[in-house]
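A quick aside before the break. I want you to see a complete sequence-to-structure record at least once, exactly as it would be stored in a machine-readable document. Don't worry about memorizing anything.
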Amino acid sequence: MAALIGTPTLACSDSSPVADRREAVVVDAQAGTVGGAGLGDSAQELKRAFGGRWREGEEVRSFPDDLGFTGNVEIPSNASVRDPLRVLRFRDRSFLLTQGSGAFAMFIWNENARTQRGVGIGDRLEKARQRYPGTRCDTVSEPEALYVTWPVCVARVGKRFLSFGEDPIQSITVTDLPLEGEALATSPSTGP
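That is the input. The structure line, written in tokens, reads:
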């Protein structure tokens, strides 16, 4: 089952703890974390880690309306009728999760977000291709508005999938499951 991220609204938050906006936000794709919490964590663990206010549920968008969605459109999910997909969104990041498996995808749009290899928000996709050998890039489109397109580059980092949306980069996405529906899913592993 794939989660169509651009159209269905999943979860969100309007603010997070007050932090120094100049402080680096490290995205560790190998560990699947941002700021020490991330993939595999429950909603409660994420709320404890990031504090502040949040929104969650099946009807909350994964990206703020004023930002728009710039990540991968189809992210596989192990959600089911008994364990529905939820989104938990903070001011500058959001997570797709189920009760049973916890978070399995995270989206970061904090202006100070950088991967451990130094690729971050505001950088060109060329830098991602240089720092992550084997990165695959393609153009994706909004399912309900095929005329709205943006570039996405994906690299496999260990057992996880790291993607960069838009050029210059506006979002960083890390997932546990390979991406569906496009050649991007076959990116070779690039190590840590």
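Two observations worth writing down. The first helix runs from residue 43 to 50. Confidence is low (pLDDT under 50) at residues 1-21, 181-187. We'll return to this after the break.
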